[in-house]
Every structure is written in C-alpha cells, then in structure tokens.
Amino acid sequence: MDRPFSADRRDEALFRRAGMTVLESNADYGNRSQEEAAAAETELEELRRMVRLRACRCEGQLDALARQAMAAEEQRVISERVSHEMDAFREEMRLKEEAENERIRHLYRGLLGPGSQARETW
Q1: In terms of domain of life, where is this protein from (predicted)?
Q2: What is the rounded radius of gyration, in angstroms, for the C-alpha atoms of the chain?
Q3: Nearest Cα residue to 108 out of 94, 95, 119, 97
Q4: In this structure, are residues 82 and 74 in contact, taking their beta carbons and an 8 Å threshold?
C-alpha cells in the first residue's frame, strides 16, 4: 500500500482539520529550543553585565562615603583637640592673670606699708 502522505504530514493534516496548530518536526523543535536557549543565555549575560556595573557603582559610592566619613571623623578629632587646647590655654591665662594680680597686690602692700588698707581694685 502506497501512502501519499508520510506520518508527519498526516499528523499535520489531521491537526489542521481539527483547527489546531501544526506540530513542529523534531528538527524544528530542536532548532527553536536552541534559539530560545541562546536568547536566554544572551539575556542572562546582559543581566550579569548590568549587575557587575551596578556593583561597581555601589562600590564607588561606598568608597566615596567611606572617605567622607573618615574626613568627618578627622575633623571631629581636630575640633576636640583644638577645643581641649583652647580650654587649657584659657585656664593657663586665668592662672597667670590671677598670679599677676596677686603680685601687684603684694607690691602695692609693700609700697603703701603693712598698716594701710588701700582700696584694692584688683
């Protein structure tokens, strides 16, 4: 018995009559699968590239923020040191002024004599 249609063609005709889409042959299916896999790999590689780019940007921003934080910390330490030195300087000046006033009082007491109680404005 001579068949005018091969098995694949018969199936195609049957599905066409039933209103269904025609099945692909194994070769077509394999080709389509390979194309889809290649497209998925390309998309995956593009996503990886984008992730690397974003990671680099994030690292750059992190480095910039770290430098800013270090600069702020250095500024804070310098400010604390200057404040401490200024406080020490003020205390030293107060003590010197107090000692100088006491020296001047003592000098005036010596000049005016021990019995006189001159006005001390110092």
Answers
A1: Eukaryota
A2: 48
A3: 119
A4: no
For residue range 65-112, list pLDDT tens digits in order: 999 999 999 999 999 999 999 999 999 999 999 999 999 999 998 888
HSE at residue 31, side-chain half, CA atoms within 13 A, is 5
Give the domain ranges of the chain: 7-112
Q: Closest Cα to residue 21, out of 12, 29, 30, 33? A: 12
3-state class of 72 per DSSP? helix
* 23 and 15 Cβ atoms separated by less than 8 Å: yes
Task: Name the DSSP class of 4.
Answer: S
Task: Enumerate helices (H) and strands (E) in the chain, giving the number of each.
Answer: 2, 0
Burial 97-114 (b: 16+ CB within 10 A, else e): eeeeeeeeeeeeeeeeee
